Amino acid sequence: MPGVIDIHVHLREPGGTHKEDFSSGTAAALAGGVIAVLDMPNNTPPVVDRSTLDQKIEIARQKARCDYAFYVGASMENATAPVIDPHVAGLKMYLDATYGPLRLASLAALLGHFESWPRNKPIAAHAEGLSTAVIVGLAQLYDRPVHICHVSRRSEIELVRRAKERGVHVTCEVTPHHLFLTQDDAPSLGNLAYMKPELGTQADNDALWDNLGIVDAVASDHAPHTLEEKQSDSPPPGIPGLETTLPLLLNAVHNGRLSLERVVELCHDGPARIMGLRPPDDSYVEVDLDATWSIRGADLLTKCGWTPFEGMTVYGRVRSVYLRGTRVYEPGKVLAAPGSGRPLSLA
Ligand code: NCD
Ligand code: ZN
Ligand code: ZN
Known about the structure:
The protein contains eleven helices and 14 strands. The chain is of the alpha/beta class. Helix 4 (130-142) runs parallel beside helix 5 and helix 5 packs parallel to helix 8. The longest helix has 16 residues, at 260-275.
């Protein structure tokens, strides 16, 4: 199948390399059948201007093992001075509190971004609950592409459905954790189940599955934090996901909940379409749909070394990954060197 393009990934560099870095995070990507990632801007310091973007471009050039592009963060300061660059796929705005300092809390700044961000590149939003209505309303008012990250609630997905039916240029992604976990799993997982948006009810989960036909992409929201941080009294929100997204979806294929064609649309075609990406040539993943294995945090390549899916047995395993004609992953082994990843071509 075509390699996965994951449009929502936090590789944590700079500023959080004890959680993940570009080398470990892109190794995890390849092990999960992911050939390209879009990295988020909520770093320390956040990527909001030319110098922080240049720093990230240089880190990726030296350390990425898969292909990549970036989001720039929407701040108060850059609202009328968009940071435009061939490495930047979109603008990321945070309308609600989550991990990191980026949060857009001013209407003037919000409108400034909608007026000045190039119309051919999407604005991607972390918007929960009421903020979803704000962002859908602005997409309609400005008649421009807006992408809603990690939709997780019945009311949110129903709103997106209505907006799409009305021709509003809105797209959305869902995460594997909101598809395969609910609040019922939270007690046994403790802080490891804490992420933004938080796990939904069974009714929310049912609504995501019932409306999967209007979902444009599955994205991991790979957001690693160390076990020590997660088990502290004030755990940060976020869970890793790069290595489990495709296996969980293939397991759903095995269970008859999805077709393989739909997995390809959600993980490859949709991501490329909504973010205006040209997928790398000669790149694909060999998967074994009948292989069964148990997910173990200790076996994962993500630096954080844990997963909320610990012990789950799934059907579907990544065998080999090819990127631009070269084999970059074989069972149990990443073959791509740091620095061999390339910037994605953007439309
Ligand atoms: C993300 C993180 O840790 O960077 N956390 C999360 O719970 N999803 C931030 C985000 O995507 O909201
Ligand atoms: Zn978010
Ligand atoms: Zn995220």
